[in-house]
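Table S2 (continued). Query chain:
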Amino acid sequence: MNLSFKRITSSGSFIPEIDGLRFIAIASVVVMHASVYIMIKDQSKYIDAFNFELLAEILHHAMLGVPIFFAISGFILGLPFAKYHITNGKPIHLKSYFIRRLTRLEPPYIIVLTLLFFGYVIIFKTMEFDLGLKSFLSSLIYSHNIIFAGVHAYPLLNPNLWSLEIEIQFYILAPILAYVFSVKSILVRRGSLVGIAVLLSIYTVCFSLPFLSIVGYFHYFLVGFLLADLYVSKSMIFPKTRFDGLIAFFFFVFIWIFETQDFTSMMGRSAWEIIRLTGIFFLFYYVIFHKSLRFLSFPFITNIGGMCYSIYMLHSPIIYVFGKYIVMFSFSKYAVLNFSIYLVLLLSVILFISAIFFQLVERPCMERDWHKKLFSRIKNIKMKKL
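Corresponding output:
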């Protein structure tokens, strides 16, 4: 059997740099969650003394991986609409658009939710049936953030799934939002995207809804839209130089330095939110347009980035199931070395199990019209039996 971990795209075109950016996003989130779980608190039995509290504070900045995912979604979903409106590309049939989203994303999501429900409620009995069922059904319709608002901020079966609910809200709104690409004036079109993104950046700092929604993250999706506009128009903001790699690396490092919460004043938070949003834009620009960070195009990197959906949904349950067994062992008298070994082992388990799920579930769902082929096979089997 010939296994392939390369992402199957609906358009047939593959942009390796996008999966490289997905790698950055998923790696940051997974490393953060795994590190926080195995963080060594009792150092009395170790020779060295290491400030893991400082490490935990630094790692918390890795939550930026989620907004990076949102910007990627804005770019990917914006591309076909931008091609249609700006370069007279193929028209987008909304029925096909929604069926594609449904058949691509729903089966893996439902399978993971179901496994988590049976695991927590039926097998391990760590959650009451009524609460588990309510959480399961709420997540199933992507409304856990709203239904449980003020009670449980994140989905009970898997807290990471909160961001998928935001993604779905964007998928639904994207065809309407994409009419911005129909504006003929480049200045008005791109100026509107930039202006709205900046205003929403300020809004998210100054105001908040009682539940998580796309409103708080809309500006990241708009960055993706702006990049899609530039990509389709083949617009280069800056000429290529031999320093592009250093510039891209600067933005790569820069966006992780602070969190919005690190600033006490509203003005400081608003300013950093805008600055970081700008940094994300330029990181994407130099990676996608100038192909500055070439390692992000390496097959190993793009393959992991390509199966980020599986990794994102599975990594937290894997950490909690296997992590407790891994940290039972002591491999060294040095806390830092032990921590590193724990992290490598846990990341290896996450990657291994996620790769299996990707091959068996997610990748087959990437095939266009896979559901039609499946129903056709079932129909043929039934006819043969008759």
